[in-house]
Design a protein that fits this description.
With about 260 residues, the protein is mostly helical. The chain has three domains: about 1-75, no CATH class; about 90-170, Helicase, Ruva Protein, domain 3 (Orthogonal Bundle), CATH 1.10.8; about 175-250, Orthogonal Bundle (Arc Repressor Mutant, subunit A), CATH 1.10.10.10. Helices cover about 50% and strands about 10% of the residues. It has helices spanning about 1-10, 25-40, 75, 90-105, 110-120, 125-140, 145-170, 175-185, 195-200, 205-220, 245-250; strands spanning about 15-20, 45-50, 110, 145, 190-195, 220-225, 240. It has a three-stranded antiparallel sheet with strand order 5-7-6. Helix 2 links the parallel strand 1 (about 15-20) and strand 2 (about 45-50).
């Protein structure tokens, strides 16, 4: 409140940025929401932007209580978006993220290496950074070659398989796992048509397919491509993975039933 009043008096604004917000417990989040609500009530020039992982992606053990995604009553009265999932980078943005920092260090990517790195990373900025860092470390010369990227991909896949994806799948039910396996068996990344999934899961009803998919979507493990409004249409809609490299992991580890 005091910062907001000072900012208003001097015609400037204050923006707080906080990464890893998922590390805060519910009590700390409630205090933060209360403070921001007070600021909003007086229309003070204070904004808050945070970034964090959905509970499904976090490192805590399966027995640990996951932070709630339900906005508090304070948030609901602030007329501000509570949660926005970051979308994958476009191919052009991914290219720039690789090329420009390397150029600043006097390095470059071969065209084949660049195309392979962009395709592998699926637009995921964190995966792009992990892959590029590994490729940089193994490259012998100023140019990062295709062979360097191939080696970096193997190392990155190993890291994902050792600790990241198992944590993502730790609380997945048997039905949810079967649905993910069906998706991986049909396409590499998606989108996978609901109609094709229902045909593959021939002992499932349409309601069970929609219900199971929705459960995964609420935990941000998949995204429903809905072109028919509020209701999921088996005939017209599709679903895709949000977790990078999840489809290949399921196939490589023979999790497809």
């Amino acid at each position: 409140m005091e910062l907001g009043e000072l900012g208003r008096d001097h015609s400037v604004g204050v923006v707080f940025g906080l990464d890893e917000i998922h590390a805060l417990d519910d009590r700390a989040l409630d205090s933060l929401y209360f403070a921001l609500h007070r600021v909003a009530q007086d229309n003070l020039p204070v904004a808050f932007v945070s970034c964090g992982l959905f509970p499904s992606w976090q490192k805590d053990s399966v027995d640990s209580p996951a932070p709630s995604l339900t906005p508090s009553s304070y948030v609901s009265r602030m007329y501000a978006p509570f949660c926005v999932r970051l979308k994958p980078l476009s191919a052009e943005d991914a290219r720039r993220a690789l090329v420009e920092p390397a150029a600043a260090e006097g390095s470059s990517w071969s065209s084949e290496a660049l195309a392979s790195a962009i395709d592998f990373s699926e637009g995921n900025a964190w995966l792009l950074q992990m892959l590029a860092n590994t490729a940089w470390n193994v490259a012998a010369g100023p140019e990062i070659a295709y062979e360097d990227v191939v080696g970096a991909q193997a190392e990155t896949e190993s890291q994902l398989g050792d600790w990241f994806i198992p944590r993502v799948l730790r609380a997945v039910s048997s039905d949810e796992r079967r649905l993910l396996a069906a998706m991986a068996g049909l396409v590499d990344r998606g989108p996978t048509p609901f109609a094709a999934l229902l045909e593959r899961l021939d002992d499932w009803s349409p309601d069970k397919l929609v219900r199971t998919t929705t459960q995964l979507a609420r935990r941000d493990l998949v995204e429903i491509k809905n072109g028919a409004g509020l209701w999921v249409s088996i005939a017209h809609d599709s679903v895709s993975f949000t977790v990078p490299r999840l489809g290949p992991y399921i196939r490589q580890n023979e999790l497809i039933g």
